Amino acid sequence: MNRSVSIARFVALSLGAATVVASLSACAPLMLGSAVGGAMVATDRRTSGAQLEDQGIELRASNRLRDQLGERGNVSVTSYNRQVLLTGEVPTEADKAAVEKTVAGVDNVRGTVNELAVLGASSLTQRSSDTLITGRVKAAMVDARDLSANAVKVVTTRGAVYLMGRVTQREADRATEITRNTPGVQRVVRVLEIISEEELARMLPQPAPAPVKDATPTK
What we know:
219 residues, Histidine-containing Protein, Chain: A, 2 domains
């Protein structure tokens, strides 16, 4: 795939997403971290049950935090294989601790990574920049022939890029290298579940068996 074409496509998608953020930012400070489409489901390394659980976790956590914080915080909840990443901004340290406690109490959550900052809510300009960085990272991963881009979820907040997914050590190192070399990235945080190469091989589609030729001699 031509790199300039792939980057242009992801930038266009990113700008579209930024427009959505602009239209919703005034009324929805608490954001769900992911949406699962048909193509992503087909190549996702989570089981279908885990994918549904993650969607449920994000929805329940977001609803609880909306009731808890109202418009006082900008919290993004991203769940991958029931491990929850919290990013965004809250007004106080007490709010940061309370958010983590609330999310940890959601059904099926097995762990939390609290990356909330005690700051005022990020500006629309910063969020748009983060969306653009995410697009650049994903485009670079698509261009990398030695990495499955769909295996890594990318979340960007204030220039910090968080990588989530079920990957081998080789893939984790490659994804980190790609991300570090992407313009605009301030730091890389790995929230990855490391699997073995053997486990990865079992996940990949197996080639169809070769057709059996008829050995009956012709007359």
